[in-house]
## 1
Amino acid sequence: GVGRQQKKNMIKFTIITCTYNAGHELQRTTDSVLRQTYPEVEHIIQDGCSRDKTLEIASEYKQVSDQESSAHDVIIVSETDGGLYDAMNRGLKRATGDYVVFLNAGDKLPDSDTLEQLAAAIGKATPLPGVLYGDTNIVDDQGRFLHRRRLAPPEKLSWRSFLNGMLVCHQSFYALTSIAKATPYDLRFRLSADVDWCIRVMKEAHRQHRPLLNSHLVLCDYLEGGMSVKNHRASLQERFTVMRRHYGLLPTLFMHFCFIFRAIGKKKREV
């Protein structure tokens, strides 16, 4: 095992998984956290009173994890909430790690040493980066690799980067917990609160003169098709509101015209 003093000096990661009737997807997420070789991990499963086998899977996972030598802290909470982003805020309040990331049921950490490599990427950085980010693989329901995420993370990320779209997947975006807690999700947004949250976290990191660290790692295997894919149009309208708030009306309009032209051009090439 890792000596107590050594453990004390280690970066601790909090992973938050919000679930509601996620019995079909949760296992692959918990399996991927369970096999992390890195010891300093807190995994909060914030459940919205599921009626399927979600809580059974979660408590079995906690039992197995508690028996491991490098036991991670698994915390299971089941309570009614006001939807996904409210559940995320509830999870955030409980987080005690240095960094926090949201991993949905069905998403997973790609390798057993993903968090170990991420901790190594931070090294002895002072001040601690405001955000750690990386790339994302898109996988199918069987966990098979389909392709890299279309939007690739930039070499140098700033809060202005998201004017070009959400260049870093929410699940590959680790926020310094102190900043994350100070900027909870805005519950006025039903579908794009994650975009808004990432931008606000990066703005706050900038204000604190903290770097945003590109880990150059694939940090997540992301299950194809999320909530906003199913509500595509409403999601786009809401995203426009988010972008306008952060970047102003004219830059946002200009970028949207670029998106539309690109989409038309792509359709023409495919015909």
## 2
Amino acid sequence: MSWISIGKALLLIHISMLLIISSTPLSLGHSFSSNESAAFLALVKAIKTEAQLVLENLANNNTALASEHANRASALITASVHGRIAESNLTLADDLSNVLSTLKSSTESSSDASTASDIDIVISDLDAIIDGIIAARIDPDQLDNSTIQALTIVELLDRVLINYGDAYEVGFDMTNMSMMMGDNSNGMNSMSPMEIDSSNNNMFMANTSATEGFELVNITSYQTAQVLATKVQELFNSQLSNSSADTQSLDNIATALQELVSTMYNRGSPNDVMMIVHTKIHPNFITAFGLEFST
């Protein structure tokens, strides 16, 4: 057989493998169909998370970290986000921008307990404004819709992965499941090839304990990832854990979320965090809530 024939045969095999992979839900990882309400709910929860971390860091006398989280909260309200909020209520959109600016400027000058108390009031105002925006922008029926709630958690999990990746400066997109395939060009030299465990239809790696090359370099992003993961767990427990979905899938999600929070608080490897989200949490959300993929 000529080298050209061999090359064609290999190409056909490669294409066939891609077709098989593309028809397997797990291979799509986090690429769920987007929903504007879920994305918006995840955004405002991310803002509240940064505000919470402002207070926590002030309580620990770390004004530098408090200021960084205030800056991150403000940065989440882009011109585009402000415009979308203004479509429902211009006053609330302006109020949100103003209170975040106040939070930012207050932390930059915070130096005593009285200032911290003032910031506590600012954050209370922020929470009230956000609650008003949610009421103005999202139909109550959607807030109680299990699919919207599940998609909101999926959106927040993406933010968890992004922040954890920034914290360890991994150099690749942790929300992209294909990054677990061991491509040396993306900086994951320690990763092993994926395998299929046919007994439980989960994907795992032969070696997920390798942490070489990963070092915590951004404590601000690490804190954000930690608190977001905790909020995801709280949201699931309060909104979805007792739903009418498949009981085994719900149990699997609860277990995996606890593993995720514990792994992150113990500064686990980014590899392990990706594995938990992409191969334990996402597949069970698909089964439990019938989430669809983007096209």
## 3
Amino acid sequence: ADWRYCVEPELFINQLQPNHPYKEKEFNGKVRPFSDVVDTAAKLKQLISTQVAALSYQPGEKSGFIFSETGSGQSINTFVPSKVRPRSGDAGPFVRYMEQLIPNEKDRNQLLRWCATLVVRPEIRMHFSVLLTSETQGVGKSTLGDQILAPLVGRSNVSKPNENDIAESNFTGPWAAHKRLAIVDEIYAGQSKKVYNRLK
């Protein structure tokens, strides 16, 4: 009852973890300890009640089943929100960290607006990204992405592509699809002009 079969692309999804789809062989291996048959996927495919037409990724909407307004049928939303919940407290340490990271007040305010939109309004797809540069290492650039934004967005909605992923992909690969935040730790423009031009 927990599993659904997606027709296109052909995947198997657990309703409790829609962000972890399985291919047929993986699914059969995953459920084998609980099944009396070797090919559980074939049995699941026979049940019309378990089928969904497609996968979707709609941040801000409830995870799991959604009905398409275009008439394409039922789909399953693979977006899973962060488990971090707001609570009252002192924002002072974060404010001081941001003042140290971005000394320019105008730039800092713009970055804070971008971060707030990313975290609080998942349904908004922003049309620009953030590029943090510094001549000195260890100033806290990675901390913002890895330790602050990634948990707030939800780890399953974050990818960490490398230079090759960006240079060789068409921006629809695993690092871009069904993700809200991509964190690229280092780009050396002098060594990788192709990456530099692709990002532009």
## 4
Amino acid sequence: YTHLVYYNRYRHVQEAYRQLGRALGVEAEVGQPLAPRLTQEECDFADKLLEHWQVGNRHLLLVNVNAGDLCLERRWEPWKFARVMEVFAAREDVVVVMTGSPPEQAYTESVRQLVDEALRDRVVNSAGTMSFGQCLALLARSGALLTNDSGPLHLAASFGVSTVALWGPGLPATYQPLVGNHRA
């Protein structure tokens, strides 16, 4: 509360953080965000899951239908997620895996249940089945993440994973990853 920091809601939020850093005498570097550190055990766990799901040379598409309890309005409509997952589940070269935390498991499963019955078994609901670090290791190994505007978007970007994020009510220009292969 001793230093004024300019905030422009039409600029990326990272600029507000850079302004705060400058007020504290720190100049931040802009670029690829630092990825969380993973343990060997977390990486081994993710590798075993990929083997179990027989990913092999196929593409791993992670899908996050959640947005956290603080901003449920960020969720894209469940039936729309189901339709997109059907398109990818029908492909032989793609493995579709839904992610989420333990409290999100039931909602994630309710969205999976909207997938056409003929394709539903080709969509894995992994929500609530692994630790945070294990989920990060899986995310780091994925080919792409389809997600709402949420934390997993930024974690995926930190690993250099391609992302497609569905936005609303937030503005992509304010919060989207600044580097990497990202589509809003």
